[in-house]
Amino acid sequence: xxxxxxFNRMAEKTFKAYEPDxxxxxxxxxxxxxVGKSTLLVKCCQRLKEKKTILYIDAQDFVKNYxxxxxxxxxxxxxxxxxxxxxxIMDHIEVLKGxxxxxxxxxxxxxxxxxxxGRIICGFRGDPxxxxxxxxxxxxxxxxxxxxxxxxxxxxxMLNYLRQMAYGKFLIVEDxxxxxxxxxAANFPEAQSLMNGFIQFANRTDSALDHDxxxxxxxxxxxxxxxxxxxxxxxxxxxxxxxxxxxxxxSTTRTPEVRQARQLAIYGIRxxxxxxxxEIGASxxxxxxxxxxxxxxxxxxxxxxxxxxxxxxxxxxxxNSPDDEKTER
Length: 329
Hints:
With 329 residues, the chain is α/β, with parallel strands linked by helices.
């Protein structure tokens, strides 16, 4: 579902009118998470595919396919696919952060398309000033092309989005309920999840879609969110297990107790959340190399320290156990 408003008007007009022959070589679409960047890029791809050879690829797939091609000795085929389209759309380029070889390959892809007079469009979650992880050459070139923002939606935008959702589902919902949802949701995917979850809750509890039922649903949702193995929840549980404050784990303090708790948290996040080292680094405001080093140090320490091994087992058991067992704790 697409909501047209002031926060995305410039981007919407740009990509509705996008014509490769008249466009800048590179176009960067940027903005916060969950505001419709990918939706806009996919629509642009669908509109252009009958005019030009066009390839849409998520950066995560780019990374995986590049690694596979390098391993299997099929890089020439991989490069032919990426470097010959008239337009290459690479979405979610923030995923490349910390992946040195993939960034280098992307840079050469960029150069090859430029030499062939192709076009490249990139989707980025963040601000152009945060592109430094791509290296000076590539980041400056992306910033030097056409740069198009999608801004953060206003509370009124979020409310209108929820109204559209309710209308599309043939639901009659009071504005008071929708306003509370709009306050709760940070972006459109969250608003969609909130609406769908509330409908399921109402059906399950045989409740009306009213304010009282929404308050009960939000209470249940927050409880369930607290049980999810997110970095924040894992760090909070590590704080409980070690007696080291969560704030200290996030800090730069390097006392043995804090360092050990931080290593336990990093190992737990990597094991339970399956996040990459750069993603964990972003959560703790540390470089991916220091995260990797901490992970490896903990692997060695846990083999020698029974108390540390016991805390790790307790951490893993907590997030892997049924919800009713967590409640009893």
